[in-house]
Amino acid sequence: MSxxxxxxxxxNVQVEPLIDHWYAWPHLIPPATAARNITERHLKxxxxxxxxxxxxANAVKxxxxxxxxxxxxxxxxxxxxxxxxxxxxxxxxHLIELSAxxxxxxxxxxxxxxxxxxxxxxxxxxxxxxxxxxxxxxxNNHPSFRLIExxxxxxxxxxRSQQSLMLSKIxxxxxxxxxxxxxxxxxxxxxxxxxxxxxxxDDLFRLKSNPLPWHEIKEMLQIRDSQDDLxxxxxTTESPLSYAPxxxxxxxxxxxxxxxxxxxxxxxxxxxxxxxxxxxxxATSRYTYLDLxxxxxxxxxxxxxxxxxxxxxxxxxxxxxxxxxxPRNNRGHLxxxxxKLLFENCGFKNVIELNELEEIQAGNVRITxxxxxxxxxxxxxxxxxxxxxRIGPHxxxxxxxxxxxxxxxxxxxxxxxGDIDALFLGMECDGAPLSWLYGxxxxxxxxxxxxxxxxxxxxxxxxxxxxxxxxxCREAYVYAMGQEPWLNYVMSIKYTDQSxxxxxxxxxxxxxxxxxxxxxxxYGEKEILIEPKxxxxxxxxxxxxx
Length: 546
Ligand SMILES: [Fe+2]
Ligand SMILES: [Fe+2]
Description:
It is a single chain. By secondary structure, the chain is α/β, with parallel strands linked by helices. The chain has helices at 31-51, 53-61, 78-91, 93-112, 149-154, 199-206, 214-221, 228-232, 311-317, 339-345, 407-417, 434-438, 448-453, 461-470, 488-491, 500-514, 532-545, and strands spanning 8-9, 13-19, 22-23, 133-137, 143-147, 163-169, 190-192, 235-236, 251-257, 260-265, 268-272, 296-300, 321-327, 351-354, 359-362, 365-370, 386-391, 394-398, 422-426, 475-479, 518-521, 526-530. Helix 1 (31-51) packs across helix 2, helix 1 (31-51) packs across helix 4 and helix 11 runs parallel beside helix 14. The protein binds fe (ii) ion (2 copies).
């Protein structure tokens, strides 16, 4: 490879953001929520692997155990896992102590807060937590606490030095499930100790489209001579195909997989829940990182689940994003950390929080936050929003995993916003039980029957159809089903024709089609152009119905 010609970062270089060698999903960043995950998820999984690695090796081969708490190293590399565990125990001792303090605070409140004044109890708060929590009751005298999250991010509990990026080449969709297996280094990985908010992260990803000479790259990433060959292999002199933005007079949307959709219209671009595939040969056609505009006006996040906030993608596009829009929340609950604080502490600028029914306007585009019920195991979580986008007379609702547990909500919303042309709805109507995602945050054992009854489930056929009917939708797209093979590493879903989400969404699609509503379950890639004439046409019945 030339040392003179400028080099681009290859489009098939996978970049995994890590914290303590664990894949950085959003619950590993807010300090208190991360502390609980370290002790109740990571250390427990690693302890179990170290004592019985072959149990893990067998479990990961069983499709029924997909997404379970098992390390996927074929029973090998036990010494390296032990080293990771021991380092976490040593370097993260204060977070381990914080996690225990949260547990004992919960216990203390349960046992001693009986509806009388809480002030005397402050002296019983574990020392490490004092000054970081306020004790509160709800209106029925149930005690709890709120974390002062901004202060926790300023404290030693938020430690950027544990953040890193692991680079390696990827040539197929086959990636192990990352939430239960720590990432270990190997000969073909480049492990960069970089905090996520470092400007070097942006400089690195600019190299996908703006090349630099080798010596500058080497200096920027502080590469040792012994790593020259490995790092060189991640770069190429070949320039990527440049992206042609949509410049037509209408609206163009493109489906990138799961809940990721790009909309371009009259110079405004928006990406919803960005999760992007790298670029390599594959039987499943798709849009990739190469199909994004150089500048993205708005990234919009629907909710705080790992398949909707993917740092791996978000960090790579951060330098292109002008604004990131998130559901408003800063209530200090372990299960509902503030997204604004989370993104700002990871180096994102212009994080805009919107409340339900609040909106932003950019040119001809109006974006309104609509309530998103359910899909969070009945936990008090506010970080979730469906986004209604209105461009001229055309309207689209990105409802993500909204579960229509209360149809009256949509009747009220219809009064406010009128008919909606196109609905995008996730229908993962089985959903994992509460403990799968939120278990580490619980400080008491949850009965199995309760756990099973409280699921991360999206809408079923009836619930979805009620939304379609209520808004008199002309198009209904089932999306966010986790079916794209390049997302297995965060989804752990494998549907068959007999899976309920497939049966229920098939029913919805059929019912819509019988009524003349365009409907399909999105998979892989899709492009729709809405001509301005069609948009004007859509206005006629819209006016009749409202
Ligand atoms: Fe979700
Ligand atoms: Fe989802």
